[in-house]
Amino acid sequence: MFLNTLTPKFYVALTGTSSLISGLILIFEWWYFRKYGTSFIEQVSVSHLRPLLGGVDSSSPSNSNTSNGEADSNRQSVSECKVWRNPLNLFRGAEYNRYTWVTGREPLTYYDMNLSAQDHQTFFTCDSDHLRPADAIMQKAWRERNPQARISAAHEALEFQLRINEVSPSFSALVIPSVFLSFPRLLCATAYILLAEEEATTIMEAERLFKQALKAGETCYRRSQQLQHHGTQYEAQHRRDTNVLVYIKRRLAMCSRKLGRTREAVKMMRDLMKEFPLLSMFNIHENLLESLLELQNYADVQAVLAKYDDISLPKSATICYTAALLKARAVSDKFSPEAASRRGLSTAEMNAVEAIHRAVEFNPHVPKYLLEMKSLILPPEHILKRGDSEAIAYAFFHLQHWKRVEGALNLLHCTWEGTFRMIPYPLEKGHLFYPYPICTETADRELLPMFHEVSVYPKKELPFFILFTAGLCSFTAMLALLTHQFPELMGVFAKAFLSTLFAPLNFIMEKVESILPSSLWHQLTRI
To answer: Is 370 in contact with 399 (CB distance < 8 Å)?
Structure first.
């Protein structure tokens, strides 16, 4: 009787309301997934509903082994997502700030600049900074967040050091502690570094400041080298002066490279690597590879790769893709996909394809930038190996080298996607490298600016609830439209569907009536 009283308007309202509600849920789920990478309904069900329904509590003692395993996996993911200093990072004043003046966009994130501040405090400060008043000022300057405050502190350190140098020995012995006079006629090298990095608006001006820093840095290095064995304090001071000197020489070589004096830059880098062979943390060989590629000195590039493309050494996109470029160079000018499909790949072509597959497996984000399928931005000051930030940093400097080799980009275009057929899915294990880390997206979003669309690998599958709400929204919307267009026909279908749905219940009720006595059934219905 109730079903017979329902009109078609009720069915239209019912299906339309269901479609609207499921559509709103779908929009919210999609927004939440795009922002946080997970389903809101799944997260709520796992975090809140599972404990209420008697789920296992991870904090219980019985699950200590599980929690320890999760902690180990978390520690492993953190170590996998360690960020590295970009060996080819740009100059803030001469390059990053100029981009901001022209576009009004900030190319560096706060997280990236905070990491740089930590690096500067690690490389350019030590516990004995109080022995040099200018270095004590610079120790505070590296902690400043405001760029203008850092620049002002650097000028203050230079002026203070100049005043000390101008004081006569007889007078200075009265007003300045003797420990300050143990390094007479010195200038503050780190102050010049800060000014060259952040205040200089051109590369030529930065080079001039770095040359002044070099004079001061060499003097400090020679003095601390003589005193390094007199105690741990002097040893730490010598280690700091070594870091300062290596940094200055490397940046001077980069200035020469940017100003077109590439051969001079190569010589400076080679001398620096010979003089300080143990300081591999600066990755100077990557700067050397880029300069040698600019000179098209491929024999020397191969010699550098033979030394650093070793199984015991950490890999990088520069190492893997440069090796692929050299092998592609041998066959790319004559490579044709049609001819290769007819006759098969030769040995040299197979080696080139395998090198490309190796490089793509290490960092799958690079090909889209090299093939200009995705727009480039300025590289950050820190990169995540195998992540989108490393791909941007590599392509920003090496795209020109790939274009210079005839047919190299064509070979890359024809072969790079074949890499993904060789990698097992899901990515429990890698093919030539360790499994691809799952934390790269989060770290890259911290390193790259908001206006850049972060490249994600592997692509995340849509959660079940997004697919479910999308299907429910579409189905109910279709029912609402059909009910509005054909009310009588849809009413018949609805009654037939509900009758079929309740048929098992009616059958059970009839069986119960036939088994139970009529008087008892009458009493139950009255209750």
So the answer is: yes
Higher pLDDT, 85 or 50: 85
Q: Is 332 in contact with 405 (CB distance < 8 Å)?
A: yes
* More reliable by pLDDT, 248 or 278: 248
The rounded Cα 135 to chain-centroid distance in angstroms is: 33
Single pTM value for the model: 0.72
198 vs 105, 251, 412, CA distance in Å? 17, 13, 38
| Cβ neighbours around 134 below 10 Å, total | 27
- pLDDT score recorded for residue 36: 63
Angstrom distance (rounded) from CA 82 to CA 443: 9
Task: State the DSSP code for 333.
Answer: G
**Which tokens belong to 314?**
């950490």
Q: Using one digit for the tens of pLDDT, what is the confidence trace for 308-365?
A: 877 667 788 999 999 999 999 988 888 777 777 777 778 888 888 889 988 888 888 9
How far apart are the C-alpha atoms of 186 and 199, rounded to whole Å? 22
Query: What is the Cα 110 distance to its own chain's centre?
Result: 14
Pick from 223, 269, 261, 229: nearest CA to 242: 223
Query: What's the pLDDT score for residue 383?
Result: 92
- Whether 127 contacts 234, CB under 8 Å: no
Tell me if residue 53 falls in helix, strand or coil.
coil
- Which distant-in-sequence residues (6+ apart) come within 8 Å of 457 by Cβ? 364, 365, 436, 440
| Tokens representing residue 177 in the block | 């502690």
Cα dist from 325 to 211, 233, 300, 344, 356, whole Å: 35, 47, 14, 21, 8
CA separation for the pair 45, 274 (Å, rounded): 59
Alpha-carbon distance of 514 to 518, in angstroms, equals 8
